[in-house]
């Protein structure tokens, strides 16, 4: 139990530090925005680049993990989206709930936890998550959000806009650059490895701090408990269950199963309330993210207890 606490405590205590700093007005909203831009535009792209560029592709890519994580993500996304549609929720909120079911906070929570549990091999799993989450979750999300606005644009226009949004993401742009070195097409300079590692390490701490700060001021009182609990159940129960079934079906080893289950147990990403606020559902998505973040301690602890390699 001490080992589990030593992995979980630094991550969630850093979230608490961010919450407390914002609560005591040690940071202004503009400063938090600057931290967020650094993390998303510099830190996390460097994390992806470093994870890919510093290891041969054959060591980084595990097909059983990639296909299991992709399958669990897509099935969970579809389940959340369709369930919300059947319950009569607005098409925009239904699309967002698909994200809530099928995408983990891999970079800000899952990766720091896995790094403390496994060490440097965590980067390869995170890089595979980035491919899945951006190509199989974010791209359909952008399309559904666009269609839900009722602007009657052609499919070509919708797909072009979704593709443009995806391709201008610095995290996506970092992937082909990292793969150049991962495939051995060019040798990775020592200085590039070191500076990308430094930026990646700093981004993890700041990302956790930013999560806590962004949770400050969120209230659950005006949210619908049934809607929040449904998303929480989808993210923290359905997604891990699908991951477990698919990983075993594909013959994943113990370390790979542990990595997949830990990422699946991570809470909803910050994109959920971010897109929610952009489309008029800030209250619903922010409250749900707070609840899922708090409840995620349960499945994360369970995964560490049952599957953590000794």
TrEMBL record:
Specify the protein's topology with respect to the membrane.
Multi-pass membrane protein
Q: Which UniProt keywords apply?
A: Cell membrane, Membrane, Transmembrane, Transmembrane helix, Transport
| Any one Gene Ontology BP term | transmembrane transport
Location in the cell reads: Membrane
Instruction: Identify this protein by name.
Output: Transporter
Signal peptide range:
none
Q: Name one Pfam family in it.
A: Mem_trans
InterPro entries membership: Mem_transp_PIN-like
Broad class of where this protein is predominantly found: membrane
What is the species listed in this Swiss-Prot or TrEMBL entry?
Answer: Neisseria chenwenguii
Q: Which GO terms describe its cellular component?
A: membrane
Q: Which PANTHER family match?
A: AUXIN EFFLUX CARRIER FAMILY PROTEIN (PTHR36838), TRANSPORTER AUXIN EFFLUX CARRIER EC FAMILY (PTHR36838:SF3)
Q: What transmembrane ranges does the database entry give?
A: 6-22, 65-81, 93-114, 126-145, 166-186, 198-218, 230-250, 256-275, 287-307
